Every structure is written in structure tokens, then in C-alpha cells.
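Can anyone check this?
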Amino acid sequence: MKKSFTYKDSGVDVKAGEQLVDSIKDMVRSTYRAEVIGDIGGFGGLFRADFSSYAKPVLVSSVDGVGTKLIVAFKQKKYDTVGQDLVNHCVNDIAVCGAEPLFFMDYFSTGKLDQKTGREVLTGFTKACRENGCALIGGETAEMPDIYKDGEFDLAGTIVGIVDEDKLLSGSDVREGDLLIGLESTGLHTNGYSLARKVLFNEYDINDIPEGFSETVGDLLLRIHRSYLEVIRKLKKSEGVKAFSHITGGGIEGNTKRVVPSGLKPRIDWKSWEVPALFTLIQTKGNVPDQAMREAFNLGIGLVVIVSKESKESVLSYLGKLGEPAHVIGRVIKS
């Protein structure tokens, strides 16, 4: 008699997915805002948008992933931080446009669903959503056997926010002579991991502590990508603040030129701040050229604020009061 096969025999356990959703409902609900309609598990996430306080409301959205930072999480068997990385990354991308986050949606795909791992990842999503004030209104958990190795998964996320059109931060009023103020990162954030892994895992195991450091390689690389939402909220109201740049793939120069008008460019003074030791370790151990480092990594600067020369001192003073270490790292020049 010919053997019969079920979906579970092929590697997809629908019941396990349902059990995961049931186990995280309270966590997800903890992120809800008053505008959320319905509950987790529907075909679509529902959000009752109220635009009455906006003259010309503009929705701002962004989608991203965590990249090969996930491989570090697999090696470390630590999964609660990568969800925070993803939410914070997406929040920063719309915050630099002047937008306030409204809601977030996630995509979690794996070869075989491990409920403990899935719950840890979702814990990170919900923690960061609460901290950023955005609702986690839906997502997708997919089992795809033969696509991923055992214990591996991938993440993606989409965020939607809102800003009044006349308060959009596009960089259109940036001028020659404006200054670049850099705010510090918490580590690599979510970029440059292919190069970092190639160098560091050629020299160290995940639990090794490099000389001069107090953390393991795994902990150093899994430092959470911070959210700059709160500091952007405060700074964008300050006189002379013209634009923000979230430093992701492409580095400081590559990202900052995205908010500088045609005919101008950012000039970075690469010696104006102390590059954190983790980046120096990568460069030294891998004999990585300066330009390659500048293109792959944030080098300790996670956000750039473009300000007028006249507002430099007041902005730096304000950042000091906020407890934000900041550095004047360059200026805008003619291209």
C-alpha cells in the first residue's frame, strides 16, 4: 500500500505555529495603542488612524532585516536581542524623516519552528515596540523546510509612521558650511556583519574574550542597535537643526549624503572622535583598509545631525544636558 503523507510529514507543523501565536498574545497586546482594532491572529492588522491633528498627513514606511547578525545569534543561541535590533532599525529610518511610529509588522521564517526560539524573538519585538510606542499589529510565522538549516531563521519587519508634510525632514534646506554632529552608536548596530564575522571568527570562538575587552566576541557583536527616536523628537524642535542621517550600510559618508542637496556633499573629519575598540580590533585583525572600514561600519557614530554653524554650541549644550555624547565630525561642502 502506498504511504500517505501529511503536511507535518513534509516538515510543516501547523499546530506548532498556532501554539506559538497563542503563547505570545499577551505580549503582543502589551504593545497595543488605542488605535488598534481587533486582536492578534486576523488576516490583517487593523489600525484606526486619526489624522485630525495633521494639516497634511504623510505616512512614512520602511522595511528591513537584521542581515548576517543573525548568524551570531545562532552561534550564541541568544535570540531576544535581534527582534529589538529590527524594530529599532526601522524606527530610526522613519524618525530621521521626522515621522512618529504608529505600528510595526514582522516576518519570521524558519525551517522547523522551535517555539522557545520563536517566543524569544517575539519577546524582542514586543519589548522594542513598547519602548518606541508603536503597536505590533500583525506578522507572519512561516515554516519552510529545506530552505534553512536546523536552528536557523530569518527576520524582516515593516514599520509605518506619520508626519505633517510641512514638518518632513528631507535635508532640502541644508547649506554649504553646515556642521555634522555625530551621536554615538552602541556597536555595529545591524551592518557590516559579513566582514566582522569573517575577521573575528577567523581569530576567535564565540565565547572568547579578546585581550583588552571584558565581553565575549558574541556579546560584543550582539549589542543592541539603539533607537534614536527620543533624541530626534527633542532635537527636531531645536533652532538650526536641518536634517538627520541614520548610519547603516554604506557608512557615515554614504548615508549622510542622502540628506544633502545636489551640488553639496558631507566632508568627514575621520580623526574628530575616538573610534571604539571593537572597530579597531576588526581592522587590525583583518588588515582592513580605512576606506573599506568607512564603507562597511558606522565606526561608533550611529546618527548624524546636520546643523547650522550658528546653532552648534546650543545643540551641543542641549545634547550634553540629555546625556548624549556628541562630536562635531565634519561639515557640508561643495561637491
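Reply from J.R.: I decoded it. The chain is about 35% helix and 25% strand.
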